[in-house]
Specification:
By secondary structure, the protein is an alpha/beta fold. The chain contains nine helices and eleven strands. It has two domains: about 10-45; about 80-335, TIM Barrel, CATH 3.20.20. Keywords: Membrane, Transmembrane, Transmembrane helix.
C-alpha cells in the first residue's frame, strides 16, 4: 500500500484565514484613525462626538493664544513678560496705567482701546527706565467696582463683564505686559470678590490688587467714608492666591495693597509675606509734591513691602516727574498713573 502524504490543507487554510483577519484589522484601523494615526474628522478616538471647531468669525481678530497653551509645560514655570519668574528680579521697575474698561471715569486706562493705551503707557514709562533697571509694563484694571447703591446683591459693588477682562488678558499677552485685577469690594470681603476672578488669576501674568478705601463695613456706603480692612482678611486673600500660584506652577504674582491713610489697613504689621507673591504697598495720596511725600512717609513700610507710588494726571499739583520719583526714599519700585 503506497505511503500517504500528510494533508497540508488544514495549516494552509488557517494561514489564509489569519491573513484575511489581519487585512480587515488594518483596514478598520486606517478608517478609524486616518493615514497619520490622528483621530478621523468624523469621529473621535473615544467614540465621542467630534469637537466643535469655532469658525474664523468666532475668534477675535488679533487674539493671542492663552499662555497656558503655548508656554507652560510639565515642570517648567512660565516666564513673566521680559523673562524671569520673579516680578522685581534683575532690578525691574514697574509702570502701570490704572482704570477700568471702556470709560475714562476711573482712570487713564479706559480712555482708549487696549492697544492704544499700551502705546501711551510705553511713552509714559520711558523716562523711568535707567541703566541697569529695565521696566515692566502693567495694566491695572478695576474688575469689581464700588457703588453708592446696594445693587441686587446688596454688596454695594458690581463686576465688569468677563468679556472685558478677557480683552485685557489678550492685550497683555500681545504686548508683553502684566495685568493686575483691582478689587473695590463694597460690603463683601476681598476674598469673596477675588474668587469670582479665579479663572483669570490662573493666568501666569495676572495679579491682584486690593483697595481698602472701598472695603465697607456693614453700615458704610462707598464714597461716604474711607474703608478699611484687617490684616487677617488680607492674609486669607493672599494665602488663597499664593496657593493657586504654587499648585499651578506659576511665576510669582503681583499682589498690591493700596493705602493713603494709616487706618486703612488695621494691624498692617501682621500682613504675611508670601514667596509666591510680589507684595507691594502702593501709596495713593494726591496733591502737591510735599503733600504726596508726607502721605508716603506716614504710611510706608519698606521693610515689609516693595513700595509703590501713584501719579494723578488731574488731581496732582505740579505732577512729579520720573527724576523726582526715583529720588524718593524709601525707594519706589512701582509707579502707576491715574
Amino acid at each position: 500500500m503506497p505511503d500517504h502524504q500528510p494533508d497540508q490543507r488544514g495549516p494552509v487554510l488557517f494561514l489564509v484565514l489569519l491573513a484575511m483577519v489581519a487585512l480587515i484589522v488594518i483596514a478598520w484601523g486606517v478608517g478609524e484613525n486616518g493615514a497619520n494615526g490622528e483621530p478621523s474628522r468624523g469621529e473621535s478616538s473615544r467614540g465621542e462626538p467630534p469637537p466643535v471647531v469655532p469658525s474664523p468669525s468666532a475668534v477675535e481678530p488679533g487674539a493671542a493664544p492663552a499662555p497656558s497653551d503655548v508656554e507652560q509645560s510639565a515642570g517648567v514655570v512660565p516666564a513673566l513678560p521680559g523673562g524671569g519668574t520673579k516680578v522685581f528680579a534683575d532690578n525691574h521697575f514697574l509702570v502701570a496705567y490704572y482704570g477700568t474698561g471702556q470709560t475714562s471715569a476711573l482712570g487713564v486706562l479706559g480712555e482708549t482701546d487696549p492697544d492704544t493705551m499700551d502705546r501711551r503707557l510705553h511713552r509714559a514709562a520711558r523716562p523711568f527706565r535707567q541703566p541697569g533697571q529695565p521696566v515692566r509694563h502693567v495694566y491695572e484694571l478695576i474688575v469689581t467696582i464700588a457703588d453708592g447703591y446696594p445693587g441686587k446683591d446688596g454688596d454695594y459693588s458690581h463686576d465688569i463683564p468677563r468679556s472685558e477682562v478677557r480683552r485685557y488678558i489678550r492685550a497683555a499677552h500681545r504686548n508683553d505686559a502684566l495685568l493686575l485685577l483691582d478689587i473695590q469690594p463694597g460690603r463683601t470681603s476681598f476674598l469673596e470678590a477675588a474668587k469670582r476672578w479665579e479663572w483669570a488669576l490662573r493666568d501666569p501674568w495676572v495679579g491682584l490688587a486690593l483697595d481698602p478705601e472701598w472695603r465697607m463695613g456693614p453700615r458704610q456706603v462707598p464714597a461716604h467714608t474711607v474703608g478699611q480692612v484687617r490684616a487677617g482678611e488680607v492674609n486669607r486673600t493672599s494665602g488663597w492666591l499664593a496657593r493657586i500660584a504654587r499648585e499651578d506652577g506659576l511665576p510669582q504674582k503681583l499682589f498690591v495693597l493700596h493705602q493713603f491713610r494709616v487706618d486703612m489697613i488695621e494691624r498692617i504689621g501682621q500682613v504675611k509675606k508670601r514667596p509666591e507673591l510680589a507684595m507691594v504697598q502702593h501709596v495713593d495720596g494726591f496733591g502737591t509734591p510735599r503733600q504726596k511725600l508726607a502721605t508716603y512717609h506716614a504710611v510706608a513700610r519698606p521693610k515689609q513691602f516693595a513700595m509703590g507710588f501713584k501719579l494723578f494726571y488731574d488731581e496732582d499739583v505740579r505732577r512729579m516727574q520720573s527724576r523726582a520719583v526715583h529720588a524718593v526714599r524709601p525707594k519706589v519700585r512701582f509707579v502707576s498713573f491715574q
